[in-house]
Specification:
single chain, 5-stranded parallel sheet, 5 strands, elongated
């Protein structure tokens, strides 16, 4: 919500001819680049993504000329400059063993940002804010923080992506809780790989095993622990996730009375 309010305020200021620079901060896959692209569409301006490997040159002064040329192209096309993965482009000048050309590039960018101030908006995104030179970060008027989706947003994202599939009632709670800590990008990859195109794949253990095999995220340990846990433990988790006992009884092919006994074993 705080990002949305800040973005709406930014749009209002831009319409009143106030140009600000935005820095997007957060882990990979949380929507920084997508938000920059969406906002450029709202403003009706083309987004020019600066790729550092394409402009960097080890010869003295060549990188500076490449950078200057890129910025002039943004001006000529009335666009937005987008410095994606800025931590990879502009590491702090205080870092040891830094290449001299990198330091010259940082200095050049600082001068260019000042030269082109108020001529076009500048967006930048970083996964590692602490690595970005402080002199660079001060050139940004607005900082937006992104994080992995919480429980509510993760469930909403999963339901949206699986809206065209008829799923048993336990699938979304299962995926939502076992994928805690996943970014939107991780969820997107996982859901594309997950095979839920026929009823045989709706089977409880089939889904968990699929999820385990396709997940390379660090949260794989959570999935492994759940997969290897007892039926009683899985039942207790499902009740915590608000899956109805009748549904749980159907999953494990047992009576609701037995499900109730398993749940009652949970320590108070």
């Amino acid at each position: 919500p705080q990002n949305l309010n800040s973005i709406m305020e930014y749009i209002k200021l831009y319409k009143n001819n106030v140009i600000e620079n935005i820095l997007f901060i957060g882990p990979s896959g949380t929507g920084k680049t997508m938000t920059a692209a969406w906002l450029s569409g709202i403003l009706g301006l083309p987004l020019f993504r600066l790729s550092f490997p394409k402009i960097f040159d080890s010869f003295l002064g060549k990188t500076a000329r490449n950078l200057s040329g890129a910025l002039k192209e943004v001006v000529e096309n009335n666009g937005i400059l987008f410095l994606d993965e800025m931590d990879a482009i502009l590491r702090s000048r205080e870092m040891k063993n830094d290449h001299g050309e990198m330091q010259r590039t940082v200095n050049m960018l600082l001068m260019e940002l000042d030269n082109y101030s108020q001529k076009f908006p500048i967006f930048a995104a970083t996964n590692l804010y602490s690595y970005v030179d402080k002199a660079v970060s001060r050139r940004f008027h607005r900082i937006l923080f992104f994080d992995v989706p919480n429980n509510f947003l993760r469930e909403r994202f999963i339901r949206m992506k699986l809206s065209s599939t008829s799923l048993p009632p336990y699938v979304v709670p299962l995926l939502n809780n076992l994928c805690e800590g996943f970014s939107y990008a991780h969820l997107e990859i996982m859901l594309k790989k997950l095979s839920l195109d026929n009823k045989s794949n709706f089977e409880w253990f089939n889904i968990i095993q699929q999820l385990h095999s396709i997940s390379s995220h660090e949260q794989n340990n959570r999935i492994t622990d759940f997969l290897n846990s007892s039926i009683e433990t899985q039942t207790q988790k499902l009740v915590e996730w608000d899956v109805e006992k009748q549904c749980i009884a159907s999953i494990f092919n047992v009576s609701e009375a037995l499900v109730s006994r398993w749940v009652s074993k949970v320590p108070s």
